[in-house]
Amino acid sequence: MTESGGRDSDTGRIETFSDGVFAIAITLLIIEIGVPHAEGTESLFDKLVQLWPSYLGYAISFLVIGTVWANHHNRFRLISRSDHILLFLNVVFLMCVAFIPFPTALLADYIKEEEHRVTAVAVYSGTLAVTAVFFTLLWLYAAGNYRLVDRAVDPLLLRAMTRRYVVGLLLYILAFVLAFLSPAASLGLIILLALVFVLPEPEGSRGARRTRRRSVRG
Amino acid sequence: MTESGGRDSDTGRIETFSDGVFAIAITLLIIEIGVPHAEGTESLFDKLVQLWPSYLGYAISFLVIGTVWANHHNRFRLISRSDHILLFLNVVFLMCVAFIPFPTALLADYIKEEEHRVTAVAVYSGTLAVTAVFFTLLWLYAAGNYRLVDRAVDPLLLRAMTRRYVVGLLLYILAFVLAFLSPAASLGLIILLALVFVLPEPEGSRGARRTRRRSVRG
Amino acid sequence: MTESGGRDSDTGRIETFSDGVFAIAITLLIIEIGVPHAEGTESLFDKLVQLWPSYLGYAISFLVIGTVWANHHNRFRLISRSDHILLFLNVVFLMCVAFIPFPTALLADYIKEEEHRVTAVAVYSGTLAVTAVFFTLLWLYAAGNYRLVDRAVDPLLLRAMTRRYVVGLLLYILAFVLAFLSPAASLGLIILLALVFVLPEPEGSRGARRTRRRSVRG
Amino acid sequence: MTESGGRDSDTGRIETFSDGVFAIAITLLIIEIGVPHAEGTESLFDKLVQLWPSYLGYAISFLVIGTVWANHHNRFRLISRSDHILLFLNVVFLMCVAFIPFPTALLADYIKEEEHRVTAVAVYSGTLAVTAVFFTLLWLYAAGNYRLVDRAVDPLLLRAMTRRYVVGLLLYILAFVLAFLSPAASLGLIILLALVFVLPEPEGSRGARRTRRRSVRG
């Protein structure tokens, strides 16, 4: 058993716990949608259609958390050591992820009411922006000077990743600012960001990953 | 460590996350059943008996999600690589699975009311049909031209699997259509489908599985 | 890689999913306890004390599910193969386990009301008895003629396990019957059973376990 | 496969189950925060600001459970065997952890009401103190005379750990007592404790850990 194997296991434990939180947060989204009450001759179908903001919020947040999970997981493939600051940043980051069901329910409840729409979308996009802040901090801390990242990783890849996250963060902050001008545009940008971050990552990622793993188990 | 080991690990990560979502969605079903209020001389037993639609919905959905989990898991034993489209299709598929507690609660609340029964059963069977659509798409994408499936898998097995899922999908769509004619027949078909899909899969599955694993670890 | 390795992995997948359901069901128990409302000069402390049936229900169910988890886990250490009937029995068994939060909330709500106490305790103990029925069926199916159990396991151990579960099942049925005569005695028996089943199992278990694992990995 | 490997697996199973309970308890915290109702010209923003006790409770409990998880996980790296008493103490310990969402909701609901504040903070800090009692008991039982701890662990490290937990326990009891004098000071101490326990552990931990793992897999 090599040194790096021991270190890898340190981050493995953080990953397993984080994956649990992601899976639960994403599945809890559904319990925020209450079954509508249709009495007498009211149409249940109409009542269900009126719940569209809840379905929209569910779909966007599911996509966002799914994307954040994929990115978190990919990042931890490059991070091969852990320390107490990483642990702390990760707990605060998870605190933001697990919080997402609340602004999602807020969005679903108030998106149809003109006077409250800006507040609801701003809280929603603001939560995602703060989540992005901690994700970026976590990455900058781990990747800076190869502090916790495997030394075999290509420096060009590290820089590409950093660029990716800083740009992502700026766009989430833009979504927050947009919420005050056009809530619809803000939500559109958030959906776009979730879809873009599902796209393939910069070149070199897979290679580096495979290299590192080989050194761990080989 | 071989090439295919690295690829296998790619799908392993998707499987673990998916399993978490399945386990949580299936267990969350219970919180949709509220404790009845029996006041004074009312019989608590009668109140509990009147909740039978909730128990029925719980049992059907538990069986359905359990079956879907088993099929998902079996399929990922044949899928040995992953890419971003698979990841995306899987997230949308999980979005459908995690949604199931909502139409289950709807079914439980309205199955006894004649004027709303058709809507409730249609939404329930419709959700399952959409879930089946994405499961089938996921499989067709992975298995087409051996895109992400292990090349050692018997082509006859692949075709048998595809047939199985397409037929399953058509039957779920039939259940959706039936909901408008006879809600009871629709639910009956759904229960039947859950029981049938628990049955053994076409021949060759185990062999192929064993072959692939041997190539991964051996 | 040996034959039995592949089989072991079959049950490993069932175990992981079951463990997820156990962990979620046990943790969901808390959300059935609502925060009390104390207005004006009412004592919040008194209100909290009046919630004692909720704490009692929480503690008993937590202990029961914890014990059932430990027994389930220990049994799957002896079961080295799986088939579709085992899978089905396990899903029905998990359906019972995931149901436990509902009769727990029922118990907490009605144990203080004399006219409803018998019903609440009977439903609670009845749920546990049905859970024990499926656990015993699962074991009898797997262990009968060494159907799915490792052949290296001592037959005396198998018989001791079967005796243990059949006696346990009879005692849970007794708890159900007792509910109609003395709800307190019924609950007392349930607590006793949870504590007894945490006790060490019959001799030979560890030895057999170690033997099997060696044959799997060695 | 060595003896200690089999023992290690015994605790691995406890760890996986415990990690599931931690991840679910920490993520369930959010569902205790209900979306506020803003009608007509009321400011949704003001309503959200008034919910600050809920956010505070969420943040403190998330930090506390996160810290407890990290400590539990680190401890089980030194514990290499399990027995029924450890299993029982761990179930009771998890019962306390999974209970935390309830006093958290209580804290959020009553911290602003002067007449109920002491009760709410006392119940909250009391729950954490009881949790610390069982964590310390679990450790004392496992570490006493190297009962369940790897014999390769440095005795100085064991003593440092014991000191750490006993001091932590006394400080949680102090937080409980403080609740009656100054609820704010009590909460301040709890936040401080969560932050302190995230800090690096006494020297020697990593070394011992690495030693043990080598003996298990090597």
What's the layout of helices and strands?
The structure is a homotetramer of 218-residue chains.
Chain A: H1 3-28, H2 44-50, H3 52-78, H4 84-99, H5 101-110, H6 114-143, H7 155-181, H8 183-196, H9 205-217
Description:
4 copies of one chain form a homotetramer. In chain A, 78% of the residues lie in helices and 0% in strands. The first copy, chain A, has 9 helices and no strands. The first copy, chain A, has helices spanning 3-28, 44-50, 52-78, 84-99, 101-110, 114-143, 155-181, 183-196, 205-217. In chain A, helix 6 (114-143) packs parallel to helix 8 and helix 7 runs antiparallel to helix 8 (183-196). The interface between A and B is medium-sized, with 37 and 32 residues.
Tag the structure with descriptive keywords.
homotetramer, 218 residues, mainly alpha, elongated, disordered N terminus, disordered C terminus
Number of strands of chain A: 0
**Helix proportion of residues of chain A, in percent?**
over 70%
**Number of helical stretches of at least 4 residues of chain A:** 9
Query: Structural class from helices and strands of chain A?
Result: mainly alpha
**Termini separation of chain A:** 9 Å
What portion of residues of chain A belong to β-strands? under 5%
- Oligomerization state: homotetramer
Mean pLDDT of chain A, to the nearest integer, reads: 85
- Strand and helix order of chain A: HHHHHHHHH
Q: Based on CA inertia axes, which overall geometry of chain A fits?
A: elongated
**Biggest chain contact:** A-B, 37 and 32 residues
Largest sheet of chain A: none
Query: What Rg of chain A, in angstroms, do the CA atoms define?
Result: 20 Å
Low-pLDDT stretches of chain A are: 1-8, 203-218
